[in-house]
Structure formats: C-alpha cells, structure tokens
Write a structure and sequence with these properties.
single chain; Ribosomal Protein S5, domain 2; five-stranded mixed β-sheet; globular; nuclease; Ribsml_uS5_D2-typ_fold_subgr; endonuclease; EC 3.1.26.5
Length: about 140
C-alpha cells in the first residue's frame, strides 16, 4: 500500500516557503514583518503605550509595498525566558489577527512589543481593547 499524496504536497509547499504555515493563518491583507530594517523604521515612527504592550506604527512611503497591512512582533529578554516570550508573542499575534484587519490602515506597518508580565497575564479581552484604543490614538492624533 502506498502512502497518500497529501503529505508530499504539504512538504513541497513548506520547502517553497518555510513560513507558509504561519502566513496561511493570517487574514488577507495582513503580512508579517521579517526584516530588521522594517522594525527600525517603525521604531523611529509613532508609538503608543498601553498597559499590556507598546505599539509602534508608521505609514509606508512611496516606493515601498503600498498596499496591505504589515505587522511585526517582538519581546525582549526582559519579558522572561523563551517560553514566556513566545507566550507573549502568541497573544500579540492573535490580537493583531482579530483587530488589525478592521482597525488597521492600509499601507501602514505596525510593531507590537510585549511588556514584562503584563502581556502574558492581562485578560485577553482587555488586551484586545488596548490594541483598539492604541490604534485609535495613533490614527486619530495625526493623519
């Protein structure tokens, strides 16, 4: 008996793009930042602190990817060990997946930075509210 073809197809897709499993979970129009230069550009732009994380946001200039929302996640070692950092980033990733397609603006980059203890321990509905509020402040203050 021969094995089914499905695992082979999945293996080929993963070989083409190792992030394909992560990217397939994102809503359309949402892309993950992966280059350090993009994170540094966001760090020089607008920022909004919340009780559970820090949001950095910037409008992309002409010549860069013009459409879609790009988002990045980071947690320093201050957040804790690798398990704590990964837990915080998973929560930020899920919050961005739920909120950014509706509240985010096309042509913008967002970076969510986890805080020690607060990102992991804050109730998830409050974390979602923090993201909505931070986006409203970023986009309401200046256009």
């Amino acid at each position: 008996m021969t094995p089914p073809d499905a695992p082979e197809v999945m293996a080929n897709a993963a070989a083409e793009d190792p992030r394909s499993a992560v990217l397939s979970c994102l809503p359309s129009g949402l892309t993950v930042l992966s280059k350090r230069a993009d994170f540094l550009k966001a760090a020089r732009a607008r920022r909004q602190s919340t009780p559970s994380f820090l949001l950095q946001a910037r409008k992309r200039i002409d010549g860069e990817a013009a459409t879609g929302i790009r988002v990045g996640y980071t947690c320093s070692k201050k957040v804790g060990n690798a398990v704590a950092r990964n837990h915080a980033k998973r929560r930020l990733r899920e919050a961005a997946r739920l909120i950014l397609p509706e509240a985010g603006h096309d042509g913008w980059d967002y970076v969510l930075i986890g805080k020690r203890g607060d990102t992991s321990t804050r109730k998830f509905d409050l974390l979602l509210g923090d993201l909505k509020q931070a986006l409203a402040r970023i986009h309401g203050a200046r256009s």
